[in-house]
Design goal:
By secondary structure, the protein is an alpha+beta fold. It folds into 3 domains: 93 residues, Orthogonal Bundle (Helix Hairpins); 113 residues, Cupredoxins -  blue copper proteins (Immunoglobulin-like, Sandwich), CATH 2.60.40.420; 91 residues, Cupredoxins -  blue copper proteins (Immunoglobulin-like, Sandwich), CATH 2.60.40.420. 40% of the residues lie in helices and 17% in strands. The chain has 8 helices and 10 strands. It has a 5-stranded mixed sheet, with helices on one face. A hairpin with a 6-residue loop joins strand 6 and strand 7. It is elongated, with a radius of gyration of 26 Å. The chain starts with a helix and ends with a helix. The protein binds dinuclear copper ion (CUA).
C-alpha cells in the first residue's frame, strides 16, 4: 500500500500538461476544440477496451478458474479479442477521419501569415494593408474570431509549427510550403513550440502567440509597419552608431536605418516583442547585453557570433538602443 503513494506522486507531474498556455486540453481555438473532443472520445473508448479486456481476464482467472467450458472461452476470445476492439477502433477511426477535411483545409481568404522555421527561431511575415511586408521574429499575433492562414517553410532542416492551445501541428519542410489554418476563440497569450528534433537548440525555439481584439491587432500591425523610432538619449544614440559601425546591419535589418541584413531577425521593433532569443530572455537592456556578449551560452549552436571583444560600454549602448526599439 505504501508503494501506491509513491506511484501516485510520480504520476502527478503528468497532470501538469492539462492546463497552461501550451495545453491541448484547454483549447482556445475552433480547431483545438475539435482535437480536444477527439482526445476525450479516444480516452473514453480506450477505457472501454481496457475494461472489457480486464473484465475477461478477471472472469477467467477468478470467477471461472476451473471451467473447461470451451463455449465460454470461445465467446470471450470472439467478443473481447475479435469483435469489440475493431468495432471501437472503427468508430474512432471514422470520427478522426471526419475531422481531417476541416482541420487540413487551407484558409483561402483572410489574413495570410508566412512563417519560416530556422535554426533556432521563427521568421514571421505579415502583409500590411498598404501592400508591404512586415517581418518579425518568434512572435505571432492574431485577431480573435478570424480564420487565419499560415504558409510554413524552412530553409535548413525540418521544424514543426505547433500552437497546442489553438490547433494541430504541421511540419515545416525545406523546399516545400505546408499550410495550416487556425481560428482563435479567446484573447490571451499562448505558447508555440517546435516539435521536430532539429538540432542542439531544438528546445529553445519557442514562440509567443498573442490573440488580440481585431482593433488592437490592426493598431499593432500598423505600428509594426512603421520604421524604427530614432534613438532616445545619448547612450542609445552611441548605441545606434556602434550597431552600424560593427557591421550588425550585415545580418539584421532595422527599417529607417542603413541596416538591411536578411540573415538574422529583423530588429525594427525588437523592443516591443515579448521575448528575446525565441522565448528564452525578456527584452530588457540587460538581456540584450547578455545576448550580444555570449549568444552561444544562451542558445548553443546559434549562428550569431559572440561580440564580447567589444568594450563593455559599447555593448551596453547597443543594448540600450535595441531595447528602445519599441
Ligand atoms: Cu526546430 Cu525543433
Amino acid at each position: 500500500p505504501r508503494s501506491w503513494g509513491w506511484r501516485a506522486l510520480i504520476a502527478l507531474p503528468l497532470l501538469g500538461g492539462c492546463s497552461g498556455p501550451q495545453s491541448t486540453l484547454q483549447p482556445a481555438g475552433v480547431d483545438a476544440e475539435q482535437i480536444a473532443r477527439l482526445f476525450w472520445w479516444m480516452s473514453g473508448f480506450a477505457i472501454l477496451i481496457w475494461g472489457v479486456v480486464i473484465g475477461c481476464a478477471v472472469f477467467v482467472t477468478y470467477i471461472k478458474p476451473r471451467s473447461h467450458d470451451s463455449r465460454v472461452a470461445r465467446w470471450l476470445i470472439l467478443g473481447g479479442g475479435v469483435v469489440v476492439p475493431p468495432l471501437v477502433l472503427g468508430v474512432l477511426l471514422a470520427f478522426g477521419l471526419s475531422l481531417l477535411p476541416s482541420l487540413s483545409a487551407p484558409a483561402e481568404d483572410g489574413l495570410q501569415i508566412s512563417v519560416s522555421g530556422e535554426r533556432w527561431w521563427r521568421r514571421v511575415r505579415y502583409p500590411t494593408p498598404s501592400g508591404g511586408t512586415v517581418e518579425l521574429a518568434n512572435e505571432v499575433r492574431l485577431p480573435v474570431g478570424e480564420r487565419v492562414g499560415f504558409r510554413l517553410t524552412s530553409p535548413d532542416v525540418i521544424h514543426s509549427f505547433w500552437i497546442p492551445s489553438l490547433g494541430g501541428k504541421v511540419d515545416m519542410i525545406p523546399g516545400r510550403t505546408t499550410r495550416l489554418s487556425l481560428e482563435p476563440t479567446e484573447v490571451g497569450v499562448f505558447r508555440g513550440a517546435c516539435a521536430e528534433f532539429c538540432g542542439t537548440s531544438h528546445a529553445l525555439m519557442n514562440f509567443r502567440v498573442v490573440v488580440m481584439e481585431p482593433d488592437a491587432f490592426d493598431t499593432w500591425l500598423e505600428q509594426q509597419a512603421s520604421p524604427a523610432r530614432p534613438p532616445q538619449g545619448e547612450v542609445a544614440r552611441r548605441g545606434q552608431e556602434a550597431f552600424l559601425a560593427n557591421g550588425c546591419g550585415a545580418c539584421h535589418a532595422i527599417r529607417g536605418t542603413s541596416a538591411d541584413g536578411v540573415l538574422g531577425p529583423d530588429l525594427t521593433h525588437v523592443g516591443s516583442r515579448l521575448s528575446l532569443a525565441a522565448g528564452t530572455l525578456p527584452t530588457d537592456a540587460e538581456s540584450f547585453e547578455r545576448w550580444i556578449s555570449h549568444p552561444d551560452d544562451i542558445k548553443p549552436g546559434v549562428n550569431m557570433p559572440a561580440f564580447d571583444m567589444l568594450p563593455a560600454p559599447q555593448i551596453h549602448s547597443i543594448a540600450t538602443y535595441l531595447s528602445q526599439l519599441e
